[in-house]
Design a protein that fits this description.
1 helix, 12% helix, mainly beta, 8 strands, eight-stranded antiparallel beta sheet, Immunoglobulin-like, single chain
């Protein structure tokens, strides 16, 4: 009987540990034990909604060409998420100047993505020479959920909460 109770207790502890993790094989380093995901394309993650049940946008920027891109990703920043949008609109402040930038949907035939069913958006030569900027996603709808006026910094500021 004691062996059965011990086994049940150990299984309960193991199950609790398993369920408390977020379940994906990804990076949990840094930020005082916080939960951290690495942006898969080397950009900045913008968290939308609650961790694990929400989404991420990854903002990528090439300061030389000025190209600005946004990848739509799942809650753990590993899987692309296709959306129906034709544009994602950002408000950007760089070097004291504010400008609105519309990033257009990019078709990717290799993954059977098309405009209106894609996970990548881009604006060519949108911010040439800018090394850092503040931004806001005006509005984006992903899987029926709409997110408005979500701010971010590029590069990301250390916010001590893990994202």
């Amino acid at each position: 009987m004691i062996m059965k109770k011990t086994t049940v207790s150990l299984l309960s502890i193991a199950l609790s540990f398993f369920l408390s993790s977020c379940g994906d094989d990804h990076n949990h380093k840094g930020h005082e034990g916080g939960h951290h995901h690495e942006p898969p394309h080397g950009g900045v993650l913008v968290e939308l909604g609650e961790h694990g049940t929400g989404f991420n946008l990854e903002v990528v920027h090439d300061s030389e060409t000025g190209d600005l891109g946004v990848y739509v990703l799942g809650g753990h920043a590993t899987n692309p998420v296709r959306i129906e949008a034709v544009n994602i609109d950002l408000s950007i402040t760089a070097e004291g100047e504010q400008k609105d930038i519309a990033l257009s949907a990019v078709a990717n035939p290799a993954f059977e993505e098309s405009v209106g069913d894609t996970s990548f958006f881009q604006a060519k030569a949108a911010l040439p020479g800018a090394d850092h900027f503040e931004g806001s996603v005006k509005t984006v709808t992903i899987k029926g959920r709409t997110f408005d006026n979500v701010s971010f910094s590029y590069p990301a500021k250390d916010d001590n909460h893990g994202h």
